[in-house]
């Protein structure tokens, strides 16, 4: 799953966002992308080539939208850091989703344990 590299931004392609790949070595915009990523708090020393930034970090003026997908103008640079309150809301929702998933897993485990205990009681009763 492709995920936006910007900290606290959980936008994904499957979530309906367009993700743009870090420009290749030699492209003049690559260093500016890396500078933006670094400003956002990402350690860029070991940055992989398969790094993506979502559409939310680009000005609308540098994006083109056709019937198939959104694209960037040549040498477009990400410039928008998400607002703190927007990040906090996304983080809170994300954290609640994670907690809910963990609760659901624990409920399923408890249900299996209850079924197992009932089965054991039935087997003990039948054995006597």
TrEMBL record:
PROSITE patterns named among the record's database cross-references: ZF_THAP
InterPro entries the record matches: THAP1/10, THAP_Znf, THAP_Znf_sf
Keyword list, A-Z: Coiled coil, DNA-binding, Metal-binding, Zinc, Zinc-finger
Superkingdom to which the source organism belongs: Eukaryota
Residues in coiled coil: 93-120
GO MF annotation terms: sequence-specific DNA binding; zinc ion binding
Regions crossing the membrane: none
Keyword match Metal-binding: yes
Residues annotated as domain THAP-type: 1-81
Protein name, per record: THAP-type domain-containing protein
Organism: Polypedilum vanderplanki
Organismal lineage: Eukaryota, Metazoa, Ecdysozoa, Arthropoda, Hexapoda
């Amino acid at each position: 799953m492709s995920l936006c590299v910007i900290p606290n931004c959980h936008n994904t392609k499957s979530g309906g966002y367009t993700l743009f790949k870090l420009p290749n070595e030699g492209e003049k915009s690559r260093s500016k992308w890396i500078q933006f990523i670094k400003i956002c708090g990402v350690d860029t020393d070991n940055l992989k080539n398969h790094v993506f930034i979502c559409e939310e970090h680009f000005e609308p003026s540098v994006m083109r939208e056709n019937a198939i997908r959104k694209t960037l103008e040549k040498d477009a640079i990400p410039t928008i850091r998400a607002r703190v309150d927007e990040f906090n809301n996304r983080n809170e929702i994300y954290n609640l989703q994670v907690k809910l998933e963990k609760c659901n897993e624990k409920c399923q485990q408890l249900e299996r344990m209850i079924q197992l205990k009932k089965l054991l009681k039935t087997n003990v009763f039948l054995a006597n």
